[in-house]
Specification:
- By secondary structure, this protein is α/β, with parallel strands linked by helices.
- The protein has one domain: Uracil-DNA Glycosylase, subunit E, CATH 3.40.470.10.
- It is 33% helix and 16% strand.
- It is built from six helices and five strands; from the N terminus they run αβααβαβαββα.
- A five-stranded mixed β-sheet has the order 2-1-3-5-4.
- β4 and β5 form a beta hairpin.
- The radius of gyration is 15 Å and the shape is globular.
- The N and C termini lie far apart (32 Å).
- This is G/U mismatch-specific DNA glycosylase.
- GO terms for molecular function: hydrolase activity, acting on glycosyl bonds.
- It is an enzyme of class 3 (hydrolase).
- Its EC number is 3.2.2.28.
- Keywords: DNA damage, DNA repair, Glycosidase, Hydrolase.
Length: 180
């Protein structure tokens, strides 16, 4: 069910639960929930978000899951969380302090759940949150404990720099190293 304008407005500053378990192959981390996701309680829920198609086209999932099927990711050794917890209309509404604090929370989750890979979707947010101003897409030299870090392009429909094919290709590179 599509949220109303009122429901979207009321979703500002909400949080949504993680899809997470110990020992995942890949824990995907969005920047923060959008209003549509917060209103529905589902990650990457806005129609036009390319996360779910990229996940499928890259071979991480055997079919394209819908946001309301997000819990099925756990069966594929995958999970989802966010750098910052607070829902906003646009990620640019987050302050540097919120992103840095979110990186601290995310680091604690990674240490607790120990996924093999943490995949952050959004290089600009990663650079800010983790104080890595020169980070690029792909594998990062840093680790969190034994967890390797990979940076992917933001799958938001607002990220016009990446076509669906190019986005799926980036996800495919991660899948190749993650062994999924």
């Amino acid at each position: 069910m599509k949220p109303t304008k009122e429901q979207l407005a009321a979703a500002a500053d909400r949080t949504i639960p993680d899809v997470i378990a110990p020992g995942l192959a890949v824990l995907f981390s969005g920047i923060n929930p959008g209003l549509y996701s917060a209103a529905t309680g589902r990650h990457f829920a806005r129609p036009g978000n390319r996360f779910w198609p990229a996940l499928h086209r890259s071979g991480f999932t055997p079919r394209q899951l819908r946001p309301d099927e997000q819990e099925e990711l756990l069966g594929f050794g995958l999970g989802i969380t966010n750098v910052a917890e607070r829902a906003t209309a646009r990620a640019e509404e987050l302050s540097t302090a919120e992103l840095v604090a979110g990186a601290g929370r995310l680091t604690a989750k990674v240490r607790r759940y120990r996924p093999r890979w943490l995949a952050v979707v959004g290089v600009t947010a990663y650079r800010t949150a983790f104080s890595r101003p020169k980070a690029t897409f792909g594998a990062q030299p840093e680790r969190i404990g034994t967890t390797r870090i990979w940076v992917l392009p933001n799958p938001s429909g607002l990220n016009a720099h990446y076509t669906p094919d190019a986005l799926a290709a980036e996800f495919t590179l991660l899948r190749g190293v993650a062994g999924r």
